[in-house]
Amino acid sequence: MRFIVIGAGRVGLRTARVLREEGHDVTVVERDPDRASRARNAGFSVVEGDGSHEDVLAKAAVERADAVGALTGDLNVNFAACMIANHHGCRTVMRIDEDYREEIYQKYADEVDEVVYPERLGAIGAKNALLGGNIRAIADIAENLQVLLFTITDESPMRGYTLSEVQPSQARLLAFGKRDQPMRIPFPDDSLEAGDRVAVLADFEVLDDVRQLLVGDDPAGTLASAAGTGVGPEWSSPT
Predict the structure, then answer these.
(1) How do residues 61-101 score in pLDDT, each as one tens digit?
(2) Which segments constitute the RCK C-terminal domain (predicted)?
(3) Strand 135-142 relative to strand 67-70: parallel, antiparallel, unpaired?
């Protein structure tokens, strides 16, 4: 695929590198001469200029791009670039910083295909490093929702049961993977054994209860202190 990444700062250049490593064609747009030079030295095709200007994006062949990632630290530049890209039929991804108010986020989110928060993604990585072990945060879906990947332990109360015997009311099973096998759609007769992985969508308030059910007791209370505690998710299992 062909991508345009606007902004050769920390977020933009790393994103461009990942895309290139996966075999995609990437053009970087950057208005700062020093950053543009750094991107060229890294081997990227670079268009020097303001990505919020249509003539600059035309030089980057926006009409032939599959998607545009507006990843500068300037919200106005990012939004203008996405509107131009949208006019040319591109998928649009816009960076927004965490300190913007929710109403600002909603205003822009309705106009682009995807909004990314570098700070939130970095926080997820840091939280995973702190939690360690059998719990991995995958994504924050909304202010109160998160997707986590749990690895079933020997202490799991649900070890030996099938997914049909796990009936969450305030949490949802999204994917399942046997030990050392790829994740896939969960089936009712899948049995839970130590080393299996389950991706779960849950409200922050019930994450600790879900963790206790799938992983078992956590003497350190790591997830409880990180996510908070609340009313149980009402998972049911046979007695």
Answers:
(1) 999 999 999 999 888 899 999 999 999 999 999 988 766 55
(2) 135-216
(3) unpaired
